[in-house]
User: Fold this.
Amino acid sequence: MTQTPVGDPQAGDPTTNPQPQAGTTPTTTPTPQAGSGKTPEDYERMLAELRRENAGHRTKLKKFEDEEAVRTQAQMSELEKAQKQATDLEAARDAMAAELYEARVRQSVADLVGKFNFIPSARTIATLLLADDGAIEFEDGHPTNIEKLLEKLAKAEPELVKPQAAAPGTPGTPQLPAMNPGRSSIQSPGATIPGRIPRLTDPGLWKR
Assistant:
């Protein structure tokens, strides 16, 4: 009966612990990593969740942009209203200033027009001056050269001024012709001619 030799454990049993031969690479079975093992379906679910989150963010962003546009439009509307009110106030102020300017010119003309004997009314004369309002000078809100302008107008447009009436003659003895001496120049007999030295031979000199 043939016996099978038992291998030396220290030398290594080729059946239980085979040693790799020189020049060969040992083959090993890969061990699964911890946490891995996701299937393609798992990745699809993850991508779907990311898409939903992105869609939610886009919706919130669009809502925020819309609300911001509404706020901006409301602010612009308020600004436009304020600008219109400011424009209206400025126009009203300018209108009042123009009315006051014209009223003061007309009042000044009415006070001074009588010095120049204009034929047209004071209102018409004031309108003529206002047609060239650049010539009117103001100080402290009042015209200062209306009298000069009226004098200038009277000289430039003499047909607007009433002609001056001739001065009436001084009452007294009318002028007599040179050949018709006045009564005062007729001397009575025996009267002494003024300015002549009397003579002793003059008749009536010795009458009592």
In short: Residues 41-160 form one domain. DSSP finds three helices and two strands in the chain. Residues 40-112 form the longest helix (73 residues). Residues 28-34 have pLDDT under 50 and may be disordered.
